[in-house]
User: Fold this.
Amino acid sequence: MLSVLLVTFPFFALVLCGYVAARRRMLPLEAIPGLNGFVLFFALPCMLYRFGASTPIVQLLDAGVFFTYLACALLVVALTVAASLNHRIRWNDAAFGALVAAFPNTGFMGVPLLLALLGARAAGPAIVTIMVDMVITSSLCIALSRLDGAGQHGMARAMRNALRGVLVNPLAWAILLGALASALRLELPGPLAKTIALLGDAASPVALFTIGAVLARSQMLAAAQGHATIPLSDYLPVALIKLLLHPLLVWAVGSAAIALGLPLERFALTVMVLVAALPSASNVAMLAERFGADSGRIARIILLSTAAAFLSFSAAVAWLV
Assistant:
């Protein structure tokens, strides 16, 4: 366990640095969108392209990983919505709570962390899970969020917005271009490859620092908007679903698939379980705010899952690796 903590500590320490920098205003809150934009549109796409281009195409098209992870994501969404709906939490808030329970921070945190723990071979299954979360899980939860008094027009508009979000997401295009380069065995010219490598190398530290800053900003904004009295029962169960139920569900479903002889490698299952054990994706708070959900509640789930994941994720690594 100590050896695992020695590997995971720097990653969570960078998150803490970003959090402290924003809380103490060493980093102006106005600068956080700039950091986020750099990671989202430049550094992280370059990193994902490099991993996609260097990963055999058969790993990027792994049906066993895709359908196993998708089935678990859908189960987590259904269970979280069912557990959340009450007289205060309606479809909009329940749907984004489900999204934050099912959507790990794979892009900003998971890929560099898993590569440090398991090596370059972990990139393939991790990239498949990112595509599931960005394209299917996110679109489903956005559609569910529109069920509060929405007619067919409202649902159709939500689905169009979700699809538009997928189409303009640079991470999805970076993965697709990387997969195409892998299939064609395409090698970029030296100067261009070096530029992509420099940007990709910057992705991990800047992304982790940005996660902490985004969490601090979300917490500060939620407190300023009067969300400070949110009951613990509104967000603690969702954080526990994310950190405990989600990885256990992936492990159980994946183990059953392997026992039945379905095409799923044990190593790929390990990667998927560790992906599921990651804290919630920080960008869900901004997405919830855009669709009018309780961003204060979502921010608390993300903050709690990120803080607790230092121990829970490390324990999952010690158990599996």
